[in-house]
Amino acid sequence: MSLRKLFGSNKIREYEVRLEREPDNPQWRFELAAEYERRGQFPRAIEAFLETLKLSPRSAEAHFNLGILYEKTQNGRQAVFHMVQAGNLFSERNDSENKDKARTKLRSLYKKFGSLPGAPPTRTTTDFG
């Protein structure tokens, strides 16, 4: 086993242990999801980020990462939905840098996936404030 795999595996175990102790801690769920994403375990990362949102529904960072992951798994509707949510939440807390990142990413998602008929209702990038 390579050092990278061993290190990543240890990090995953570390977060799993933390979650056993504090199952309602959204930070540990987020960190576990991010580690799954770093390791290319996209379905597990998506599941863990969705669990993060159950614990912390206004996590712009979790929505942003879900947008990225859904793009990687070719789920355009969900990618757009979560990127819009991220942009709106970043805008609400006056985080213009991350709002702009979400807006830029959203534009590329629309280009990549098209108009997405039947997508969940979303606000346009101009609605980010």
In brief:
It contains six helices and no strands.
Structural summary, described in words:
The chain is mainly α and 129 residues long. It has 2 domains: 1-56, Serine Threonine Protein Phosphatase 5, Tetratricopeptide repeat (Alpha Horseshoe); 58-113, no CATH class. Helix content is 73%, strand content 0%. It has helices at residues 3-21, 26-38, 42-55, 60-72, 76-92, 96-113. Helix 1 packs antiparallel against helix 2, helix 3 (42-55) runs antiparallel to helix 4 and helix 4 packs antiparallel against helix 5 (76-92). Mean pLDDT is 87; it is low at 121-126.
What is the makeup of the main sheet? none
Amount of beta strand: under 5%
- CATH fold description of the largest domain: Serine Threonine Protein Phosphatase 5, Tetratricopeptide repeat
Mean pLDDT: 87
Number of strands: 0
Radius of gyration, CA atoms, in whole angstroms: 15 Å
Task: Please count the helical segments.
Answer: 6
